[in-house]
Amino acid sequence: MKKRTKWLLALIIIAVIALLLFLFLPKREKSDKQPEIFLSVASDLREMVRLTTIEGERIVPITYKGKGVSAFGIGHYRARISFDVENIQQAIQGDTIYLVLPEPQVQILEHEENGFTIYDVWGNNIATRIFGAKLSVADENEMKRKAMRQLQSDLRQDGTTERAKAEARELLHKMFGIVPGTVIVLDTPAALPPTAQPIPLDQPTLNIQKQDEIQ
User: Fold this and answer.
1) What's the pTM value of the predicted model, to 2 decimals?
2) In contact, 195 and 93? CB cutoff 8 Å
3) How many domains, in total, are found in the chain?
4) What residues have CB less than 8 Å from 172, skipping those under 6 apart?
5) Per the domain annotation, does 111 fall within a domain?
6) Residue 99 in contact with residue 90, Cβ under 8 Å?
7) Is 168 among the domain residues?
């Protein structure tokens, strides 16, 4: 009887150990895999930045008034809005990953063929009206700068910049959708929870696992 009892106790112990392994081992694997998947996805952000870039051609009419002379011109530009992946901040709190979208970079390129063209020049005083109005190089450069400033303002006011942010947030959610847990995209670092732990893109997997274990 004692021998049979010992075998029975041994079987019970083995069954309990197997049950514990079955219950807790999957959770451990999930915790270990999350940082690895996060790094794999984060390493693909450089490809994502190409997808989040918005490009479009714009025509900007400008009226300029200088010293004794005025002019009208039209600029043809290619506007490009993108996000620098090097400045995307990441933080983790439990199973929640926080991504902070950096400020959009607005690049304005003058069109190769059309560029900026001055269509009309006229005088503002008696001298320029009698002897003829002529723009200086400084006047032309100021007109071009004014056109670029106007285009930057237009991009903000017509919602193009906000649309670029919205598309970037959507792509970030899709990119990190395979990571277990919740992904939250923020527009400012000030919105990060104070207890969230930063995760640099180049941080080794082992260090991230240690951070994950602290939660």
Assistant:
1) 0.60
2) yes
3) 1
4) 48, 99, 101, 183, 185
5) yes
6) yes
7) yes
